[in-house]
Amino acid sequence: MTSPTSPAGPAGAGRACPPPRPPDTRRPPAFSYPEVGATAPAEGLPSAGAAAPSKGLPSGYAHLRHRTFVGRGRDVFDAAAAAVTTWRMHRESGARVHAEAERAAPGARLRVAVGVGRLEYAVPCEVVWAAYGGTRTGFAYGTLEGHPESGEESFVVTLDPDGSVWFTVTAFSRPARWYTRAAGPVVPVLQRWYARRLGCAVRRLAKNR
């Protein structure tokens, strides 16, 4: 009887089975900073009307806190919260978002990009925390390996008892690449400019709900 693995066996039967593929040892990018979750307050989200989380941001980083008045009323809050957590805020500001999820959720990874085609420049992030509440909604993402900065940034919409709606950006960061280190004081200026731009985007989206 002819062995099925011999050259005289059925067509193709004499071909040696390919060796099993080695396991993929590549690990996904990790957070590029140790203080993951530091933008979250000790309890819940920032209290209504608060410009910053209740616990301090880690030392050794540049800190950013910026508030924008969005408008008044429940409808404005709901529209602003949806704009922030579904990436519309970023897209309205001129950035493109390639995200794993349609709205912010812990563990969701995304790339925030500017430019087009071969000139597109995208930076990797992962959502650290997200919270959805009746008067406070927001999330934070942290930088992953490969990002030119190291740190974390949160985006929170609050509805005050008097009906006023605020959007707050809180961040801590430091350079992670030679070119961001070389840019020196220019980077914080650009970050503050972008925080203002995001605030304007949220206000515009809430107004045109």
Describe the structure.
The chain has four helices and seven strands. A seven-stranded antiparallel β-sheet has the order 1-7-6-5-4-3-2. The chain is globular. Helix 1 (about 75-85) crosses helix 4. The termini are far apart. About 20% of the residues lie in helices and about 30% in strands. The chain is α+β, with helices and mostly antiparallel strands and about 210 residues long. It has helices at about 75-85, 90, 180-185, 185-205, and strands spanning about 60-70, 95-100, 110-115, 120-130, 135-145, 150-160, 165-175. A hairpin with a 3-residue loop joins strand 4 (about 120-130) and strand 5 (about 135-145).
Provide keyphrases for this structure.
seven-stranded antiparallel beta sheet; 7 strands; globular; 209 residues; alpha+beta; 4 helices
Mean pLDDT: 83
Q: How does the overall form come out from the CA principal axes?
A: globular
Biggest pleated-sheet summary: 7 strands, antiparallel
- Secondary-structure-based class equals alpha+beta
* Strand segment tally: 7
Number of separate helices? 4
Measure the end-to-end span: 78 Å
How are the strands of the largest sheet arranged? 1-7-6-5-4-3-2
* Secondary-structure element string: EHHEEEEEEHH
Gyration radius, in Å: 23 Å
Runs in which pLDDT lies below 50 for 5 or more consecutive residues are 2-13, 45-54
- What percent of residues are in strands? 25-35%
Helix content: 10-25%
